[in-house]
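User: quick one, fold this
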Amino acid sequence: MNTQRWLQLATALTALLLVFMIVVAWRSAADEHRRARDIGARTQAVMERIEARANALENEAGR
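Assistant:
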């Protein structure tokens, strides 16, 4: 094989590796986004429960 052929092969392998790395990074980012959204939803639910309990305590104290 001559040098040009080796360079073409190296270029093709580099391109394949780059595509693979982009796909892995994209999937990882999607997983992180999903986890962040889940944490946000759980946090919102906890805050709503705390507010409801605080309102109930205020109502009981006002009686």
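User: anything notable?
Assistant: Residues 15 and 62 are 70 Å apart (CA to CA).
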